Amino acid sequence: MNELGRGAMGHVFLAHDPEIDRNVALKTITILSAVSDADRQETRDRVLREARAAGKLLHPGIVTLFDVGEADGMLYLAMEHVEGQTLDTFCKPDTLLPAAIVAEMVAGIAEALEYAHHQGILHRDIKPANLMRVSETSAKIMDFGLARAAESQVTQDGALFGTPSYMSPEQIRGDTLDGRSDLFSLGVVLFELLTGEKPFAGDSVSSIIYRIVHEPPRDIDALADRVPAPLRSFLKRALAKNPEDRFPQGGAFAAALRQAGAGVAAAPLDALSQLDAALTEDALPPRRSSRQRTSSSRPYIVSFLLLIAAGALGWVFRDRLPLDRLPLDFLRPEPKIVWLETTVRTEPPGLPVSVNGEPLDAAATGLVRYADGGDPVVVATEQGCRTVEHTVTLEDAGGEVVLLVESERFTGTFDPGIAGATVTLNGKRAGTAPLDLDLDLCETNTLLVTADGYRDASVELPAQARPVEVRTALAALTFEQIPTGRLVLDDTNVSLVYYIDGNRLKRGVREIDLAEGRHKIRFKNDTYWIDETRSVDITGGQTLTPDLKPPALSTLVVQAFPANCKIYLRKPGGQWKYVDDTPARRQLAAGTYDVRVTFNATGESKDQTVKLAPGSNAPIRVSFSGGS
Questions:
Q1: Structural domain spans, the chain
Q2: Per-residue pLDDT, 146
Q3: pTM of the shown model
């Protein structure tokens, strides 16, 4: 088998079906290898279910799915093999097709989408790579149903499946989708085919999806040199944020696009005006020349027969009931109630469903029956703190409504791009980055990231945030590097040990770069009882030489009678420390000290507080009565 391509779902090979002697495109599904063991069976069943549903689509604008199965643990799809080029080939500025050809081709795609939507199937991943051009003005849609099958991972880890550039706002938000989501994606494809550029460009996934949801597309009117005015107007409606402002169905999309492509400024006729025109045209007899008047007796014959029928009916009515007593119900019969049905299921499967607040009967197997034009029908489901509701509309009739309940937890690796950064979650230290997170999304979560050389960054995730919103918020965290300045330490007349913000500076180092801001500098010399702390303010890009001169030295002299007494010192409020025996003479930093002299023989001690001035000081003399 020759490999034709590969993508997120798996590989595509050119194969031959010997049973009917035809070539097929064989797609192997490798996504199961990336799914956890607990979810693999569910994902497998979902792929098979969605593929079988897509296999019912028979339309010239959709690649036909012939078969789906499994061999040696590998899922496969056998599809129609189509020769052509995917539309991403024509999305570059130097490969663009004429606007008229693009309009006709995309209109055909819209009609194919309308057919699929009427079958209750959405594509969910319309993009140039999934559209194959098979002739000058026609294309086929590939991979129907596969995006839905792969989306099962969205509820597990919040990851975005597919290509974000082509997603609709409601698809990114996780809202319930209908066919207008696919048409928005097709509008993005049309924009790119006409301009060679994406309407919502960005440097990252988070920036792209933010622009799709919150910002208008690129200025379409600025593209006047490349896109005719009718097509610019069409694109504005096709890319509307609100689905209600877009084309309701693929047929309306196609009709308006063909008119825009032909340069027709007027809007297409609505369905009622078209029907009225058709009825009027059918009701009028064709105009005939004088040579054809011999055949004009047919209308008179028809009129005559109608009169006979009317007379007969009138006789019957007169015979049974006087005309002036005909019941009102006969003249204006009561309309019959039209009952509609929609299948409702949940993701994850098996969640309870309610209809207008009442539990859906389990025997109904997800089938909701309602009257056309009756009171609104609201279906809902919930799991934990999550509640999902959907108002059933006429467009849902005969199809399926999926209530997608987002996961209540977010699990994933948080990597801010700064190795060793400290991550604090809800006020408690969670660890260092990169870090595996497990968040309860039913609660508010606050994440704080701190790192040396960077300003603190934090994000608050509101209660009931969706996994995709959490992933987007974490990806949007930015870290501003703090500018540095240089600290220079002068030489001193005594040897000092320096500590910068609690970290000991290597001996001999006198220059160090520090982040902008306030820092604490501590310098010590245990011999001279020097231990002081100063604060300095560092400015980015500047050098600071602070005045950190140690205190001047003074001389302490202690004499005792009898001799050989022990001397203890402390700074006021500090701990006593033995320093020498009497008589003693030593240098200390000028300042106030408590001096204790202890007589060894009796253990008697005498304390006094002295203030040592720089230089020499009067000796301290102590006498004990036990001396000889």
A1: 83-261, 339-403, 419-475, 484-544, 553-623
A2: 61
A3: 0.44
